[in-house]
Request: fold
Amino acid sequence: MDYQAPQDLLRQKVILVTGAGAGIGRVAATTFARYGATVILLGRTTAKLEAVYDEIVAAGGPQPGIAPMDLAGASNDDMRQFAEVLANTYGRLDGLLHNAAQLGERIPVEHYDVSKWMTVMQVNFNAVFMLTRQLLPLLRQSAAASLVFTSSSVGANPKAYWGPYAVSKYAMEGLAKLLAEELENTSTVRVNILNPGATRTPMRATAYPNENPATVKPAASLMPLYLYLMGDASIGVNGQTLRCQLP
Ligand code: NAP
Reply:
């Protein structure tokens, strides 16, 4: 996408990014801040979130928030309390990028360890549902909120050996489409699915250990689409699946 975002695109917006400590989430968080957003950085490794916080502040961006949370173990109550803190601190949420995910193992279903399967489903799907559920009242407080679910090609078309990663993304796409329909006429919240495609990150390196990372596009090249979805230019775009084109 060759969308050119104005420099103040996200000024006054409060945006939560999950998995903000590394990979695409890190680049999205720093980019949103560069375009004026107050970004809340959610992730499981506090030191990584602090490094992103420092980068945003050093670049002169609005002071971010840090939300250490391991989505594998976070309960609905933890998420409710988190939503309360956000409500008290910011009063609303203008954007939510569901980005955190775990790859899990790439082995046949019949050999998959059940508890490892459950963990991937918890992080990639159940936590996404619970967080969305708890944050919807805050998203409704925004004049125009954008809810973005990060999927994958194997989310749209599950493929052999992709296990709970594919199944969780497939379920997440279902949740996103259902929510888009539910919210269409009852709120100003828009809901879309974003498939970043092959991108140079730690997850990609784990999934394709023999690939030369230099041949894969960097996360920065995705940002016009991420900005488009978070900014007001995409108001009215709802229930869509947007895929980043390969360079
Ligand atoms: P990544 O490099 O593995 O980064 C994932 C981020 O999620 C990390 O910051 C990680 O935290 C965080 N995270 C993982 N488990 C968590 C948990 N239990 N609780 C909280 N945070 C957790 O992944 P990525 O490649 O940037 O992927 C970002 C999104 O794009 C994912 O939804 C992925 O499925 C999707 N995607 C990626 C590609 C690709 O080629 N990269 C292609 C299609 C779709 P730590 O750093 O602390 O582990």
In short: Residues 114-140 form the longest helix (27 residues). DSSP finds eight helices and seven strands in the chain.
